[in-house]
Task: structure prediction
Amino acid sequence: MSPLLIQKGSSAHSAYDLRDPHAEVIETHTLAVIVDNEPGVLARVIGLFSGRGYNIESLTVAETDHQGHRSRITIVTTGTPQVIEQIKSQLNRIVPVHEVHDLTVEGFSVERELALLKVSGKGEHRIEALRLAEIFRANVVDSTLESFIFEMTGAPAKIDAFADLMRPLGLNEIARTGVAALSRGA
Result:
């Protein structure tokens, strides 16, 4: 006999579903924050997160408008829907902040990240690392007799998957840029 399935909008629960039906769902959101490019702005934005105990999964920042002296801060954060709304509201109140976009709710977006991965190994491990790098379209940017440094760009999940496969082959070190994201369309 199969368990009763949970259907969207239904109040029926499986006997095997041990999750608390009243627990808040934790969501991951990508926020694009347009700010004045001036000293202390990034510290104020980060201070908002640390002061209230919000988590930052990824953070990238760079000047995007040289004439207007504006920078774009891309933040990947997690929280309940209410916490995400609080974060956006509080970011909008910071004086040098011009715009806050929640790319997760505004529609489809493209997210990419750059990673450098150092993998040490000999013999079969070395051959397997090169084979997997080819499958994942990672480039060898440095090579010694004992190690490789691979460069890889892609969605964060793709980089996570590549790193997971490289761990048993001798992954020593990884450096990641954090997520850069843009919404799709006009």
